[in-house]
Amino acid sequence: MKEYYINDDGIKLHAKLDMPEGVSRCPLAIVVHGYTGHMEETHIVEVAKAINEAGIATLRVEMYGHGGSDGEFKNHTLYKWVSNMLAVVDHVSTLDFVTDLYITGHSQGGLLVMLIAGMCPDKFKAVIPLSPAWMIPEAARKGELLGTAFDPVNIPDEILQGGENRLSGNYARVAQTIHPEDEIARYNGPVLIIHGDKDEAVPYEYGKKAAELYKNAKLVTIEGDDHCYNNHLDKVTAAIKDFLA
Ligand code: FER
Q: DSSP label at 19?
């Protein structure tokens, strides 16, 4: 494992590179966490391991305001994450050992994967949104995020208050301008979507709908599983290995 930082115009992004065994050149998959997440969460670690076992290097990265990267959680927005991820894509494009690129991300990281795939449709051999939270922009336009209501026109300075997970109104201002359907339409490559049908945070219907909208998507439903695959993570990793084989 190699640990280092990727620079997004002065913002340091924490990264860990893991190589599969016994290869000098191989594909690489970028792996990203969700909202309040980080690279050591069990589902992120296990997904990365499965990808390594498929002979593909992984670069786990943490976005603005998360894990060991720069920035305060309350100031993170999807634009900052998009800027961060474009810097990560630029970085991995300079790595000599890399033959092909993949990208996977969980929840808000799955939404990020969908946006980046639309922006860089030429870069990836396939993309893997996991339980993608692509309802966030629509929810921000309606004025309800994480079960908390706010005025979507007169957005308050903070939309979530108190505790560690305070969140600036700018999160909602940014999210309101994002239209994931447009980015879905811009990516024609292979897509694997994995979603638990008992997801309490991102309704399963969004995974299903995204798989219908993509031109070339496969949906794997994890029956009886929740947002972070606490019941059947083995089925998630098996589906990823199967798809990459
Ligand atoms: C929301 C629902 C889900 C939301 C964020 C999420 C900020 C993200 C979940 C995740 O990334 O795990 O209303 O608002």
A: P
Q: pLDDT above 70 covers what percent of the chain? A: 100
Q: Nearest C-alpha to atom 1 of ligand 1 is from which residue?
A: 146
Q: From CA 38, how far away is CA 45, in angstroms rounded?
A: 10
CA of 152 to the centre of ligand 1 (A): 17
Predicted confidence at residue 161, as pLDDT, reads 85
d(CA 56, CA 166): 37
Paired tokens of 75: 């100031």
Task: Express each pLDDT in 204-221 by its tens digit.
Answer: 999 999 999 999 999 999
**CB-defined site of ligand 1, < 6 Å:** 34-35, 107-108, 133, 136, 139, 145-146, 201-202
Which two tokens mark 214?
């993509």
pLDDT, averaged across the chain = 98
Q: Which CATH architecture has domain 2-244?
A: 3-Layer(aba) Sandwich (3.40)
Query: Domain spans of the chain?
Result: 2-244
Specify the pLDDT at position 50: 98
Spacing, Cα 145 to ligand 1 middle (Å) = 7
- What's the 139 CA to ligand 1 centre distance in angstroms? 10
**Which strand (E) or helix (H) includes residue 217?**
strand 217-222
Q: How far, in Å, is the centroid of ligand 1 from the Cα of 172?
A: 12
